[in-house]
Amino acid sequence: MSPYLEIFLRAVGAFVAVVFITRMIGKSQVGGLTIADWVNGIVIGSIAANMVTQLDEPAGYYAFGLLLFMVLTIVSQWAGMKYRPVHKMLTDEPTVVVHNGKILEGNMRKMRYTVDDLTSQLRQEGAFNISDVEFAVAEPNGKLSVLLKSQAAPVTPQDLNVPTKYKGIPSELVVDGVIIRQNLKQNNLDEQWLLGELQKQGIQSLSEVFYASLDSDGNLYVDKKRDDLDYVQDITDKLPGKMPQ
Q1: Which residues make beta-bridge pairs with 99?
Q2: CA 74, CA 172: separation in Å to the nearest integer?
Q3: DSSP symbol at 208
Q4: Angle at Cα 81 formed by Cα 77 and Cα 87, nearest 5°?
Q5: What is the separation of C-alpha 140 from the centre of its chain, rounded to a whole number of angstroms?
Q6: CA torsion sign, 101 to 106 to 112 to 116?
Q7: Residue 181 and residue 174 in contact, taking contact as beta carbons nearer than 8 Å
């Protein structure tokens, strides 16, 4: 058998095997990746490492293996878009693990999902009490989506019928002493205006500015390279040293 034919058969077998095994170990092990991403991360990384370290085999074999996995990934992605069953096989489906404050142990067992996994991810979403959770859904990438009960959810301006102003994304105007001229132009501003605003804050040179941005209300935020702070809170248990600039 040709070495390249053998590599082809091995690559196809490895791809299918890793997808199958990943489906079996459950969402909690995927770590924020889809199954296809998980396969690529493990197998392609392994092949690339062997290409560098295994000097007794021609590098062309490993390069061919990498090419095959790239092709298999593209084909599987195309098949997933074309055929829904393939998409479900490669990406899995969301699974409800909490419903109306009740843990669905059966669904958790199917995913190899522990109570520690659940409570940890609930805390990350700001839900410290399971009884406050209306729905918790384990997504295909292993993350947890949480819907709090209406009585436990934070009150929003919409709930109180309070009108709010539009709040867009701030525009970066200066990064490490360099003006982002395109953003100035988009906001119908010029360098003269920027330098004038900086002088109002006691800044005489752009070289003093680490970061400056303009929010949707027209407020200019400026962070200088040297922060004039008498004390910086240290939340570690390291011995006190020189205060960072």
Answers
A1: 102, 135
A2: 37
A3: G
A4: 75
A5: 14
A6: positive
A7: no
Distance CA 164, CA 135 (A): 28
pLDDT at 198 over 80: yes
3-state SS of the chain: helix, strand, coil percent to 5? 45, 15, 40
Mean pLDDT lowest for which of 19-33, 56-70, 132-146, 184-198?
19-33
The model carries a pTM of: 0.54
Measured in residues, the chain has a length of 245
φ, ψ of residue 171 in degrees (nearest 5): -100, 130
Distance CA 52, CA 124 (A): 39
Residue 34 has pLDDT above 70, yes or no: no
Segment holding 19, helix H or strand E: helix 3-25
CA-angle at 208, arms to 207 and 214, nearest 5°: 95
Q: What is the pLDDT of residues 64-101, one digit of tens each?
A: 877 777 777 778 778 877 877 776 766 667 889 999 99
CB atoms within 10 A of CB 122: 20
Domains contained in the chain, CATH given:
3-91 (no CATH), 95-148 (3.30.240.20), 171-224 (3.30.240.20)
